[in-house]
Amino acid sequence: MDYNDYHYKQSHLDSRGHTPTRHSWDESEVTIGTWLVVLILIAIPFVGFIVLLVLAFGDHNENLKNFAKATLILLVIGFFLTMLGVGCSY
C-alpha cells in the first residue's frame, strides 16, 4: 500500500497530478546586486509602483514576490492613512 492509495490531498501537485515546473530563479538566493536594482527601481516615482506589481504578481523568486506584496500592502495602508489625515485636517 502506497501513500497515494489513501487519496490524501497533495498541495504540491496541480489538478492533473503533475508537479508544476519550477524555474531556477524561484529557489535561488537573491543576490545583493538584485536587491540594489530592485530598491533603486522602487525609489523611482510611478515606475516603482509598476515594478512592485510586476514582482508581486509575476513569475519571480518567492522572496521578491513576498517583499513586493508586503510593500504594496504598506503603500495602500499609507495611502489611506494619508487620505484620512488630509480629510480630517479641513
Report the sheet with the most strands, covering strand number, pairing sense and barrel closure: none
Low-confidence stretches: none
What is the global morphology? flat
| Helix/strand structural class | mainly alpha
Number of alpha- plus pi-helical segments: 4
What do these coordinates show?
The chain is an all-alpha fold. The protein has a domain at 29-90. It has helices spanning 24-27, 32-43, 47-57, 62-88. The longest helix has 27 residues, at 62-88. The chain starts with 23 loop residues before the first helix and ends with a helix.
Summed up:
The protein has 90 residues and is mainly alpha-helical.
List keywords for this structure.
single chain, about 90 residues, mainly alpha, about 60% helix
Give the SSE map.
Blueprint: H1 24-27, H2 32-43, H3 47-57, H4 62-88
Helix pairs in contact: 2-3, 3-4
